[in-house]
């Protein structure tokens, strides 16, 4: 097939799919992302299929299993098109009513709508829900609209048109110039300008070049890359194809952790379908451009996300990082020039080519262009994935989109950038999020993890937790990271156990500087961030642990004991039911009490009590006074 015919074929598929969906044909789009899977979406989708068949509607109504819609807190969820009616927390028993009432009779099932706590009524349309309304979705625009296992859905939404444009109208140099002009920076953490990276790779002479999609995503709590790959794998493949054309690469890898089975499955299906449609392999779209993509499943070590470790892992070697230079663009996979980019970086490419660099660079801030997806987790009402323009403030993300703090508690801090990110306090809530402002606050963008903490979080324990994670994930190759992080964990552990010593804060500070300055790779260089930022913004908590042997948030087990306030206890018995060790006793409707000798300080009673009747106080309360209450 010559190239004109191939381009035509793409247009034909698009026209055919659009024609089959034109008019008001109803479509039920059921989220099939991992979050909704965990909450039973498969059964909901199956019940929809059965119910449609039962009512003779299988042909008249499209049922589409899509990727993550972002509002994972409310899953399993479904949107009924063309009206865009959003139903949440679905169970199979709700399905018959949705089909009869909404799909057939065009009525809304009120009880399944999302209700903002302050409002008394449910919100009908997806786009009117504050969580969605205040986002700007470029990467995620189509996640809730397409079936990731059907390339025709992607093509119908203008998929592969950017690739066609590039192959038809642009030289590789023009593509690179466009990406440079867009201001796109790598979304994997460091924010390196993508066009500059591609140019470096293109200009380095070699008989073979590679590109890699980094989908390792080892940050606890981060799952945006997984969701893009699961929900819209062709957007990543199209970006990689354009990148390969620009760089002159003939082979690519998607490096994805094997803990992401749906992402692995959907990428493999997408690659096969792209091949079947002449979009991968030799003579792509009938041109002389050829490119192939392999999927490599990583074993899930955090350090494997670091680019030099990742490439060692693909080569079949132990995932040890290497000192740079040489940089991968000069000597990457098997010593050949390699451009490695993050999932979200690749997914930005096709929209930039489609709408132009000027459009893209009009979004965001002076130095950070476009949008960024954040995974909003922790003590937040609307857990989920949020895509906003760079420069959006933390307050807007956490309160306007995220719906504020769970249980009406007070915001304390947000950790951005994954385990080696920093903790940002309340006084910086109006910080516009971009690479530079986060760095000034002592944190990093990382790949976009955002863990929100409430007043019940001990910042010393939090720093210990993340440092411990990093220490366990350290590959051990360089001494500053291997030994330095271990010493920091030892000091933090003794502080949280009430064994902190004078001088520990200075020791931590000194170790943090050394590890940051001397570690071989980004893992060690960023590891001290949680300690550095909690020391900067929450130093008083360290001092309370060390000097007064108290934990102000009543979290550290060695320093806290729980007590029931008789004047507040209603005898509801909720605390006793939640107690795993039977430490709480009391008759129904009578004041309960805690046997401290049995209490393991798991906080289940404290968190479960609806009357604020349980307080955590210092084990030294009698000598030093109460430190926290509900
Ligand atoms: C410990 C460590 C883990 C990393 N994990 C990831 C990851 O999971 N995904 C990712 O894209 N980049 C990760 N990076 C950054 C990569 O080394 C690299 O900078 C990135 O893939 C480049 O892509 P970009 O230019 O599109 O950001 C990690 C870096 C370090 C030091
Ligand atoms: S997995 Fe369904 S909304 Fe995220």
Walkthrough of the structure:
- A hairpin with a 3-residue loop joins strand 3 (78-81) and strand 4.
- It is globular and about 80 Å long.
- The termini are far apart.
- A 5-stranded mixed β-sheet has the order 10-9-13-11-12. A 4-stranded mixed β-sheet has the order 2-1-3-4, with helices on one face.
- The chain has 630 residues and is of the alpha/beta class.
- The model is unreliable at 622-630 (pLDDT under 50).
- Helix 8 (172-182) packs across helix 11, helix 10 packs parallel to helix 12 and helix 11 packs across helix 14.
- The chain contains 26 helices and 17 strands.
- Bound molecules: flavin mononucleotide and FE2/S2 (inorganic) cluster (FES).
- Flavin mononucleotide (FMN) binds at residues 186-190, 192, 214, 216-218, 302-303, 305-307, 340-342, 345, 447, 521-523.
